[in-house]
Amino acid sequence: MAGHRHHRREALHCCPACAASVLGRPRRRRLARPPWAWLTLLGVVAALVPLAATEGGGSALAQAAIASPVSPILEPAVPVPSVPEIVPDQPASEKPPAPTTPAVKWRDSRAVGTPNAGRLENGVRLPSSGAGYYTYNPATQEPPGGSDRTWGTARLVHEVIDLGEWWARTHPKRPLLGIGDLSRETGGPFTGPVVGHQSHQNGLDVDIRLVRRDGAQAAAGAGSYDRALTQAVIDRLVSRGASLVLIGPSLDLHGPAGVVMHWPAHDDHLHVRFPG
User: Fold this and answer.
1) Which pLDDT tens digit goes with each residue over 167-209?
2) Where residue 257 sits, what CATH number does that domain have?
3) pTM for the complete prediction?
4) What is the residue range of 194's domain?
């Protein structure tokens, strides 16, 4: 090795040709990189840094969010006011429901004899008032009817109650129908003291006031009765099977021959009879 170095030094000092043979070809100088290359490299690095942060840091943030969920912010509950139930107003023209008829003690009653000479067995008493009707005492012309003057057969009492209910349904704005005498509790002669009857003895007869034009619940006559409404009452009674309806000679009313008849002393009421 020492000899080799010695010969190399001698060749360098001998002549330029020998020096060139020893040193060989001169080395090329490395060229400097242009500035745009560094800028490109810096741009790539700058682009990779956020991506790495997103891939790594974003995952870490997501894991942190899963590990520690953030509670939602709840708005305070606002009480909801209760809405009152809306009840539709009743039309002003409507009247309150008509009173119902009190309970009736129904019995198997029987009309014995004839209306002018008879008696009543197991009579049924008509309540003093009910749907569409009221009772009055002909002796005083005031309600209610006397407790010893409102007895009849079950058929007659049923027909009077039915008439009142029909009247309440079909004429709710009109006054109630006035019901007068029926029969005594056991029938028989129906004398005074103030008002008496030749008939009304076996529970088949009933007196009914004429309907007034002015709507009053009071006695009526030829000059104060409502012809159309009173005629409607007669028509209803006939349709229900009345066998006799007596009307005053001054009243402009009508009905089937042999059933609706003009009779003296009946200008202020209808005298109605139903078969036994």
Assistant:
1) 999 999 999 999 999 999 999 998 877 788 999 999 999 999 9
2) 3.30.1380.10
3) 0.64
4) 131-273
